[in-house]
Write a structure and sequence with these properties.
By secondary structure, this protein is mainly beta. The protein has a domain of about 70 residues: Nuclear Transport Factor 2, Chain: A, CATH 3.10.450. A 4-stranded antiparallel beta sheet has the order 1-2-3-4, with no helix packed on it. Strand 3 and strand 4 form a beta hairpin.
Length: about 130
């Protein structure tokens, strides 16, 4: 059995330097202790060259089972609907002085999502005329 990897352990170099998986549009058919589910996924992978990114759209198709009162994925497969390679663009809002005031993204325990308690360290920016 492979031990679980903790957030403080380095990750091996993989096919991208940054990635996101956006799970959307979930449907589920439940029949007793078994469920069949489908979720759409949009994946963006920044390649190690930092210049190009892969974009993939598809679906996860799962069979879930309820065991001891908890639902777990028993089987997962996927379907790739389309994919492509795109050039990257400059980071939007990079000119905002404190854009990473709440922390820079990191594949470690330094990522802002691990901050406890969560606080806002950025200055409040309220656009003129929006206080109404």
């Amino acid at each position: 059995m492979t031990p679980l990897r903790g957030v403080d352990q380095p990750r091996p170099r993989r096919g991208s330097q940054v990635h996101t998986h956006n799970i959307t549009t979930h449907t589920c058919e439940i029949d007793g202790d078994t469920a069949h589910c489908e979720s759409y996924v949009l994946v963006c992978l920044l390649n190690h060259d930092g210049v190009t990114a892969r974009v993939i759209s598809g679906r996860y198709i799962d069979r879930l089972e309820r065991r001891d009162g908890a639902w777990r994925i028993a089987l997962r497969t996927n379907v790739i609907e389309w994919s492509g390679m795109v050039p990257t663009l400059p980071l939007p809002f990079a000119d905002v002085p404190d854009i990473q005031g709440n922390g820079a993204p990191a594949r470690s325990g330094d990522d802002p999502s691990y901050q406890r308690p969560l606080t806002n360290r950025r200055a409040t920016h309220i656009p003129p005329g929006s206080e109404d």
